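Can anyone check this?
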Amino acid sequence: WGIGKLASGSSTSIDITVRILSDTKDSVTSTASVTSTTSDPDSLNNKVTITTSIQTSADLSITKSSLSDPVFAGESLTYIIKVMNSGPSDAVNVDITEIYDANFIFSRSTPSPDSGTTNQWTFEVIQAGGTETISITGVVDPSTLGSLSNTVTLISDTTDPDPANNTTAFSSYILNLL
């Protein structure tokens, strides 16, 4: 930017507004310098660097539904979990934990659960504005009466300004032909 003539002893400023990318972490460093065609007796003060700390925040939320309700005891049941990141930052190390009803027998999920578990998934990053979906299939114990109830919860290394929507409970009505 050119500021034109600047009288001896006077000053001016330029305001710069920047947009911080959603995956920015820790800090950003900016450097500004000034040059002139006029000789400067003290060029050591013609450059400045500042570092600005970045506070990340990701408004995560979780929902759960089933592909069929009611469900017959002894038959397959599929749950769909959706994790949404409303930003403004990317969410890092998002862990989802499903607490199954004792009458739900896990069969498979997409994506697969974390190694050694049937009820935990970790997403390294969920971008601001992004969504991740988990599909869980299992069998309802044939002796089940009434309903299946379960809870799914998420946590993240990124601060969430609204953690109230990070847990959801869900019940499926079970029909039994016995």
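Reply from J.R.: I decoded it. The longest strand covers residues 76-88.
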